Amino acid sequence: MNVMYLTEVAEEPGSSRSAPVESTNVGDTLFVTVGTGIVDGDGEDVSSKGRVLLFEVKREDATSVAAGAQIAELSLVYEKDIFHGPVTSLSCLSCEGRSRLVIGAGADVNVEQWGKGKLTQVGFFRANMHILILDIQLFKTFFLLSDAYDSLYFLVWRESDKSLTLLAKDYEPIPVYAAGVLSRGAAMTFVCHDDRQNLQFFQYAPGDAAARGGNKLVCRADVHLGGQTTSLENHFCRSSLLVNSATPTSTLAALKSQDTLFGRGDDDQRLGVHFGTSDGGFGTVIPLNEPDYWRLAALQSVIANALESNCALNPRAWRLYRRTPRRGGCRNNDRRKGVIDGDLVIQYCDLSLADQEDLASA
To answer: Where are the beta strands (DSSP E) in 14-48?
Structure first.
Protein backbone atom coordinates (compact mmCIF):
# COMPACT_ATOMS: atom_id res chain seq x y z
CA MET A 1 0.00 0.00 0.00
CA ASN A 2 1.21 3.49 -0.81
CA VAL A 3 -0.13 7.04 -0.87
CA MET A 4 0.72 9.13 -3.94
CA TYR A 5 -0.42 11.79 -6.37
CA LEU A 6 -1.13 10.70 -9.95
CA THR A 7 -1.37 13.12 -12.88
CA GLU A 8 -4.48 12.71 -14.99
CA VAL A 9 -3.94 12.87 -18.76
CA ALA A 10 -6.82 14.00 -20.96
CA GLU A 11 -6.00 11.71 -23.90
CA GLU A 12 -4.36 8.37 -24.42
CA PRO A 13 -0.59 8.28 -23.81
CA GLY A 14 1.41 8.55 -27.02
CA SER A 15 -0.88 11.15 -28.59
CA SER A 16 0.80 14.42 -29.51
CA ARG A 17 -2.18 16.30 -28.08
CA SER A 18 -2.13 14.67 -24.68
CA ALA A 19 -1.66 17.13 -21.85
CA PRO A 20 -2.27 17.17 -18.10
CA VAL A 21 -5.74 18.22 -17.06
CA GLU A 22 -5.71 21.73 -15.63
CA SER A 23 -7.08 21.95 -12.10
CA THR A 24 -6.35 23.60 -8.79
CA ASN A 25 -3.74 20.91 -8.08
CA VAL A 26 -2.09 20.96 -11.54
CA GLY A 27 -3.95 17.81 -12.61
CA ASP A 28 -2.79 15.73 -9.62
CA THR A 29 -5.21 13.54 -7.69
CA LEU A 30 -4.39 11.95 -4.33
CA PHE A 31 -4.79 8.17 -4.26
CA VAL A 32 -4.24 5.35 -1.81
CA THR A 33 -2.88 2.52 -3.96
CA VAL A 34 -3.17 -1.08 -2.80
CA GLY A 35 -1.56 -4.13 -4.40
CA THR A 36 -2.84 -7.65 -3.74
CA GLY A 37 -2.01 -11.25 -4.60
CA ILE A 38 -4.60 -13.82 -5.64
CA VAL A 39 -4.10 -17.58 -5.35
CA ASP A 40 -6.48 -19.66 -7.43
CA GLY A 41 -8.49 -22.45 -5.89
CA ASP A 42 -6.57 -24.98 -7.96
CA GLY A 43 -3.45 -24.24 -5.92
CA GLU A 44 -0.04 -24.56 -7.58
CA ASP A 45 -1.52 -25.81 -10.86
CA VAL A 46 -2.41 -22.22 -11.78
CA SER A 47 0.04 -19.35 -11.31
CA SER A 48 -0.92 -16.62 -8.88
CA LYS A 49 -2.15 -13.26 -10.08
CA GLY A 50 -2.38 -9.77 -8.65
CA ARG A 51 -4.62 -6.75 -8.57
CA VAL A 52 -4.16 -3.00 -8.13
CA LEU A 53 -6.82 -0.96 -6.33
CA LEU A 54 -7.02 2.83 -6.50
CA PHE A 55 -8.83 4.64 -3.70
CA GLU A 56 -9.32 8.35 -4.29
CA VAL A 57 -8.93 10.57 -1.24
CA LYS A 58 -11.77 13.09 -1.17
CA ARG A 59 -11.71 16.02 1.19
CA GLU A 60 -14.80 17.23 3.00
CA ASP A 61 -16.51 20.44 1.95
CA ALA A 62 -15.34 23.89 2.99
CA THR A 63 -17.88 24.05 5.83
CA SER A 64 -16.45 20.99 7.56
CA VAL A 65 -12.90 22.23 7.09
CA ALA A 66 -13.81 25.63 8.53
CA ALA A 67 -15.33 23.89 11.54
CA GLY A 68 -12.01 22.17 12.20
CA ALA A 69 -13.04 18.69 11.09
CA GLN A 70 -10.12 17.18 9.16
CA ILE A 71 -12.07 14.34 7.57
CA ALA A 72 -11.32 12.59 4.30
CA GLU A 73 -13.26 9.87 2.51
CA LEU A 74 -11.88 6.96 0.50
CA SER A 75 -13.73 5.82 -2.57
CA LEU A 76 -12.72 2.94 -4.83
CA VAL A 77 -12.47 4.44 -8.33
CA TYR A 78 -10.57 1.76 -10.26
CA GLU A 79 -9.17 -1.73 -10.07
CA LYS A 80 -6.91 -3.54 -12.51
CA ASP A 81 -5.95 -7.20 -12.74
CA ILE A 82 -2.26 -8.02 -13.06
CA PHE A 83 -1.56 -11.37 -14.73
CA HIS A 84 2.24 -11.42 -14.30
CA GLY A 85 2.05 -12.36 -10.62
CA PRO A 86 1.23 -10.90 -7.21
CA VAL A 87 1.84 -7.17 -6.80
CA THR A 88 4.92 -6.78 -4.59
CA SER A 89 5.74 -3.08 -5.03
CA LEU A 90 3.93 0.19 -5.76
CA SER A 91 5.85 3.42 -6.34
CA CYS A 92 5.34 6.84 -7.90
CA LEU A 93 7.48 8.08 -10.81
CA SER A 94 7.58 11.86 -11.26
CA CYS A 95 9.08 13.12 -14.51
CA GLU A 96 8.53 16.37 -16.44
CA GLY A 97 5.55 17.40 -14.34
CA ARG A 98 3.73 14.07 -14.56
CA SER A 99 3.30 11.48 -11.84
CA ARG A 100 2.79 7.88 -12.88
CA LEU A 101 2.24 4.62 -11.05
CA VAL A 102 5.04 2.01 -11.09
CA ILE A 103 3.90 -1.57 -10.46
CA GLY A 104 6.25 -4.41 -9.60
CA ALA A 105 4.61 -7.81 -10.15
CA GLY A 106 6.42 -11.08 -10.72
CA ALA A 107 9.31 -10.43 -13.10
CA ASP A 108 7.71 -7.31 -14.62
CA VAL A 109 7.89 -3.60 -13.90
CA ASN A 110 5.03 -1.62 -15.47
CA VAL A 111 4.68 2.15 -15.69
CA GLU A 112 0.99 3.10 -15.71
CA GLN A 113 -0.58 6.44 -16.68
CA TRP A 114 -3.82 7.58 -15.04
CA GLY A 115 -6.38 9.08 -17.40
CA LYS A 116 -10.07 8.83 -18.37
CA GLY A 117 -10.78 6.89 -15.21
CA LYS A 118 -8.38 4.03 -15.90
CA LEU A 119 -4.72 3.00 -15.85
CA THR A 120 -2.93 2.63 -19.18
CA GLN A 121 0.50 1.00 -19.53
CA VAL A 122 3.04 3.36 -21.10
CA GLY A 123 6.28 1.51 -20.34
CA PHE A 124 7.57 -1.80 -19.02
CA PHE A 125 10.66 -3.83 -18.19
CA ARG A 126 10.76 -7.60 -18.08
CA ALA A 127 13.62 -9.30 -16.30
CA ASN A 128 14.57 -12.98 -16.29
CA MET A 129 11.67 -15.39 -16.07
CA HIS A 130 12.73 -16.99 -12.78
CA ILE A 131 12.99 -13.85 -10.66
CA LEU A 132 10.57 -12.09 -8.34
CA ILE A 133 10.85 -8.35 -7.82
CA LEU A 134 10.50 -7.55 -4.12
CA ASP A 135 11.05 -3.79 -3.99
CA ILE A 136 11.60 -0.79 -6.24
CA GLN A 137 13.66 2.21 -5.12
CA LEU A 138 13.11 5.37 -7.19
CA PHE A 139 15.33 8.46 -7.26
CA LYS A 140 14.74 11.00 -10.00
CA THR A 141 14.29 8.82 -13.12
CA PHE A 142 16.45 5.91 -11.93
CA PHE A 143 15.13 2.57 -10.67
CA LEU A 144 16.82 0.14 -8.29
CA LEU A 145 15.14 -3.26 -8.34
CA SER A 146 15.79 -5.77 -5.57
CA ASP A 147 15.08 -9.34 -6.57
CA ALA A 148 14.28 -12.37 -4.46
CA TYR A 149 16.78 -14.54 -6.35
CA ASP A 150 18.91 -12.43 -8.67
CA SER A 151 20.39 -9.48 -6.70
CA LEU A 152 20.06 -5.89 -8.01
CA TYR A 153 18.99 -4.28 -11.29
CA PHE A 154 19.71 -0.62 -12.13
CA LEU A 155 17.35 0.97 -14.68
CA VAL A 156 16.66 4.41 -16.12
CA TRP A 157 13.36 5.84 -17.41
CA ARG A 158 13.53 7.75 -20.70
CA GLU A 159 10.61 10.11 -21.16
CA SER A 160 11.33 10.70 -24.86
CA ASP A 161 10.38 7.17 -25.92
CA LYS A 162 8.77 6.08 -22.63
CA SER A 163 11.10 3.15 -22.07
CA LEU A 164 12.84 1.47 -19.15
CA THR A 165 16.46 0.68 -20.02
CA LEU A 166 18.76 -1.64 -18.07
CA LEU A 167 22.01 0.14 -17.27
CA ALA A 168 23.71 -2.48 -15.10
CA LYS A 169 23.05 -5.34 -12.70
CA ASP A 170 24.81 -7.58 -10.22
CA TYR A 171 25.39 -11.03 -11.69
CA GLU A 172 25.70 -12.86 -8.38
CA PRO A 173 22.72 -15.12 -7.48
CA ILE A 174 21.99 -13.31 -4.22
CA PRO A 175 18.53 -13.32 -2.59
CA VAL A 176 18.03 -9.67 -1.64
CA TYR A 177 15.84 -8.93 1.38
CA ALA A 178 16.20 -5.12 1.36
CA ALA A 179 17.86 -2.41 -0.71
CA GLY A 180 18.65 1.26 -0.19
CA VAL A 181 20.68 4.20 -1.45
CA LEU A 182 23.66 6.01 0.12
CA SER A 183 25.04 9.28 -1.21
CA ARG A 184 27.75 11.76 -0.38
CA GLY A 185 27.94 14.77 -2.63
CA ALA A 186 27.74 13.56 -6.22
CA ALA A 187 28.71 9.96 -5.37
CA MET A 188 25.92 7.41 -5.01
CA THR A 189 26.10 3.88 -3.63
CA PHE A 190 23.52 1.09 -3.61
CA VAL A 191 23.15 -1.02 -0.46
CA CYS A 192 21.59 -4.48 -0.37
CA HIS A 193 20.93 -6.92 2.47
CA ASP A 194 20.82 -10.63 1.63
CA ASP A 195 19.72 -13.92 3.18
CA ARG A 196 23.19 -14.48 4.69
CA GLN A 197 22.82 -11.31 6.81
CA ASN A 198 25.39 -9.40 4.74
CA LEU A 199 25.44 -5.81 3.59
CA GLN A 200 26.97 -5.14 0.17
CA PHE A 201 27.70 -1.75 -1.35
CA PHE A 202 27.61 -1.31 -5.13
CA GLN A 203 28.31 1.55 -7.51
CA TYR A 204 27.45 2.17 -11.13
CA ALA A 205 30.88 2.87 -12.65
CA PRO A 206 30.91 2.36 -16.43
CA GLY A 207 34.58 3.37 -16.66
CA ASP A 208 35.75 0.79 -14.13
CA ALA A 209 37.47 -2.33 -15.50
CA ALA A 210 35.44 -4.53 -13.14
CA ALA A 211 32.17 -3.21 -14.64
CA ARG A 212 32.53 -5.33 -17.80
CA GLY A 213 31.95 -2.39 -20.09
CA GLY A 214 29.43 -0.79 -17.73
CA ASN A 215 27.01 -3.73 -17.60
CA LYS A 216 27.92 -4.84 -14.08
CA LEU A 217 27.46 -3.08 -10.76
CA VAL A 218 30.82 -2.86 -9.02
CA CYS A 219 31.03 -4.05 -5.42
CA ARG A 220 32.94 -1.47 -3.35
CA ALA A 221 32.54 -2.87 0.18
CA ASP A 222 30.86 -5.63 2.17
CA VAL A 223 30.27 -6.50 5.81
CA HIS A 224 28.45 -9.16 7.80
CA LEU A 225 25.64 -7.45 9.69
CA GLY A 226 24.70 -10.39 11.89
CA GLY A 227 20.98 -9.55 11.88
CA GLN A 228 18.06 -9.90 9.50
CA THR A 229 16.18 -6.88 8.18
CA THR A 230 13.57 -6.34 5.47
CA SER A 231 13.75 -2.57 4.98
CA LEU A 232 16.46 0.07 4.55
CA GLU A 233 15.08 3.59 5.01
CA ASN A 234 16.89 6.81 4.10
CA HIS A 235 17.68 9.79 6.29
CA PHE A 236 19.58 13.02 5.77
CA CYS A 237 22.80 13.36 7.78
CA ARG A 238 22.73 16.77 9.42
CA SER A 239 25.72 18.53 10.91
CA SER A 240 26.35 17.97 14.63
CA LEU A 241 26.37 21.74 15.07
CA LEU A 242 22.70 21.80 14.06
CA VAL A 243 21.64 18.61 15.82
CA ASN A 244 22.99 19.76 19.20
CA SER A 245 21.66 23.31 18.84
CA ALA A 246 18.53 24.45 20.68
CA THR A 247 17.81 26.94 17.88
CA PRO A 248 18.85 25.17 14.65
CA THR A 249 17.35 27.82 12.36
CA SER A 250 19.34 30.69 13.84
CA THR A 251 22.43 28.46 14.14
CA LEU A 252 22.23 27.63 10.44
CA ALA A 253 21.90 31.32 9.56
CA ALA A 254 24.92 32.17 11.74
CA LEU A 255 27.05 29.40 10.22
CA LYS A 256 26.19 30.53 6.69
CA SER A 257 27.07 34.12 7.54
CA GLN A 258 30.48 32.99 8.83
CA ASP A 259 31.13 30.59 5.96
CA THR A 260 29.32 31.11 2.67
CA LEU A 261 30.21 27.57 1.59
CA PHE A 262 28.64 25.93 4.65
CA GLY A 263 26.14 23.28 3.59
CA ARG A 264 27.58 22.91 0.10
CA GLY A 265 30.41 20.49 0.82
CA ASP A 266 30.17 16.75 0.29
CA ASP A 267 30.02 16.08 4.04
CA ASP A 268 27.04 18.45 4.33
CA GLN A 269 25.16 16.57 1.61
CA ARG A 270 25.08 13.02 2.89
CA LEU A 271 22.25 10.50 2.74
CA GLY A 272 22.40 7.49 5.07
CA VAL A 273 20.21 4.46 5.73
CA HIS A 274 18.76 3.10 8.95
CA PHE A 275 17.11 -0.23 9.67
CA GLY A 276 15.63 -2.43 12.34
CA THR A 277 16.47 -6.10 12.77
CA SER A 278 14.29 -9.10 13.52
CA ASP A 279 15.94 -9.57 16.93
CA GLY A 280 15.03 -6.06 18.12
CA GLY A 281 18.16 -4.17 17.10
CA PHE A 282 18.50 -0.84 15.33
CA GLY A 283 21.38 0.33 13.18
CA THR A 284 22.43 2.96 10.70
CA VAL A 285 24.99 3.26 7.90
CA ILE A 286 26.45 6.61 6.85
CA PRO A 287 29.10 7.49 4.25
CA LEU A 288 32.48 8.87 5.40
CA ASN A 289 35.11 10.95 3.69
CA GLU A 290 38.41 9.25 2.97
CA PRO A 291 40.59 10.89 5.70
CA ASP A 292 38.07 10.04 8.43
CA TYR A 293 37.70 6.50 7.13
CA TRP A 294 41.43 5.72 7.24
CA ARG A 295 41.79 7.18 10.74
CA LEU A 296 38.90 5.07 12.03
CA ALA A 297 40.19 2.00 10.16
CA ALA A 298 43.57 2.32 11.89
CA LEU A 299 41.87 2.78 15.26
CA GLN A 300 39.63 -0.22 14.59
CA SER A 301 42.63 -2.43 13.86
CA VAL A 302 44.38 -1.36 17.08
CA ILE A 303 41.27 -1.83 19.24
CA ALA A 304 40.63 -5.32 17.79
CA ASN A 305 44.12 -6.41 18.87
CA ALA A 306 44.43 -4.51 22.15
CA LEU A 307 41.07 -4.90 23.87
CA GLU A 308 39.51 -8.09 25.16
CA SER A 309 36.52 -9.31 23.19
CA ASN A 310 33.50 -11.21 24.43
CA CYS A 311 34.11 -14.96 24.71
CA ALA A 312 37.54 -14.43 23.10
CA LEU A 313 35.87 -14.10 19.68
CA ASN A 314 37.51 -12.15 16.89
CA PRO A 315 35.36 -9.12 15.90
CA ARG A 316 37.07 -8.81 12.52
CA ALA A 317 36.25 -12.43 11.63
CA TRP A 318 32.63 -11.81 12.66
CA ARG A 319 32.29 -8.96 10.15
CA LEU A 320 33.66 -10.94 7.18
CA TYR A 321 31.30 -11.45 4.25
CA ARG A 322 29.40 -14.79 4.25
CA ARG A 323 29.24 -16.27 0.77
CA THR A 324 26.07 -17.71 -0.70
CA PRO A 325 25.82 -21.53 -0.93
CA ARG A 326 23.77 -21.34 -4.14
CA ARG A 327 25.15 -22.73 -7.37
CA GLY A 328 26.21 -20.25 -10.00
CA GLY A 329 28.00 -17.93 -7.60
CA CYS A 330 30.98 -16.53 -9.47
CA ARG A 331 32.37 -14.18 -6.84
CA ASN A 332 36.04 -14.74 -6.08
CA ASN A 333 37.52 -15.18 -2.63
CA ASP A 334 38.41 -11.51 -2.21
CA ARG A 335 36.38 -9.69 0.41
CA ARG A 336 36.09 -5.96 -0.14
CA LYS A 337 35.60 -5.01 3.51
CA GLY A 338 35.69 -1.19 3.57
CA VAL A 339 33.17 -0.79 6.41
CA ILE A 340 33.93 0.58 9.89
CA ASP A 341 32.46 -1.47 12.75
CA GLY A 342 30.78 1.18 14.88
CA ASP A 343 30.18 -1.21 17.79
CA LEU A 344 33.92 -1.82 18.02
CA VAL A 345 35.17 1.73 17.49
CA ILE A 346 32.71 3.24 20.00
CA GLN A 347 34.48 1.34 22.78
CA TYR A 348 37.26 3.92 22.48
CA CYS A 349 34.98 6.52 24.10
CA ASP A 350 34.52 4.37 27.22
CA LEU A 351 38.24 4.00 27.90
CA SER A 352 40.24 6.07 30.35
CA LEU A 353 42.27 8.99 29.07
CA ALA A 354 45.53 7.10 29.50
CA ASP A 355 44.24 4.12 27.51
CA GLN A 356 42.94 6.41 24.79
CA GLU A 357 46.33 8.04 24.45
CA ASP A 358 48.08 4.67 24.29
CA LEU A 359 45.74 3.39 21.54
CA ALA A 360 45.90 6.64 19.57
CA SER A 361 49.72 6.62 19.61
CA ALA A 362 49.99 2.94 18.65
So the answer is: 28-38
Would you call 291 helix, strand, or coil by DSSP? Answer: helix
Q: How far apart are CA 149 and CA 13, in angstroms?
A: 34
Q: How far apart are CA 216 and CA 170, in angstroms?
A: 6
Q: What is the pTM of this model?
A: 0.85
Report the alpha-carbon distance of residue 82 to residue 119 in Å, rounded. Answer: 12
72 pairs with which residues across the strands?
Answer: 59
Which strand ranges, in their side-by-side order, compose the sheet holding 142-147?
133-139, 142-147, 152-158, 163-169
- CA distances (Å), 227 to each of 68, 247, 278, in order? 46, 37, 7
Distance CA 341, CA 345 (A): 6
CA angle 35, 41, 44 (to 5 degrees): 85
Q: Could you say which DSSP state residue 321 is in?
A: P
**Contacts with 260 (C-beta within 8 Å, 6 or more apart), sequence order:** none
Give dist(CA 82, CA 104) in Å, integer. Answer: 10
What is d(CA 111, CA 113) in angstroms, rounded to the nearest whole number? 7
Q: Where does the chain have alpha helices with state H?
A: 62-66, 240-243, 248-258, 290-306, 315-318, 342-345, 353-361
Cα(192)–Cα(225) distance, integer angstroms:
11
Residue-wise pLDDT for 335-351, tens only, equals 778 999 999 999 999 99
205: nearest Cα among 222, 193, 187, 182: 187
CA 81 to chain centre: 27
Q: How many residues does the chain have?
A: 362
Phi-psi region of 122 (alpha: psi -120 to 50; beta: other; left: phi over 0): alpha
DSSP state of 323: P
DSSP secondary structure letters along 44-79:
GGS--EEEEEEEEEEEPPHHHHHTT---EEEEEEEE
* pLDDT number for residue 120: 92
User: Which of 153-162, 173-182, 231-240, 323-332 has the lowest average pLDDT?
Assistant: 323-332
Are 224 and 197 in contact by the 8 Å Cβ rule? The answer is: yes
Q: Reduced to 3 states, what is the DSSP secondary structure of residue 346?
A: helix
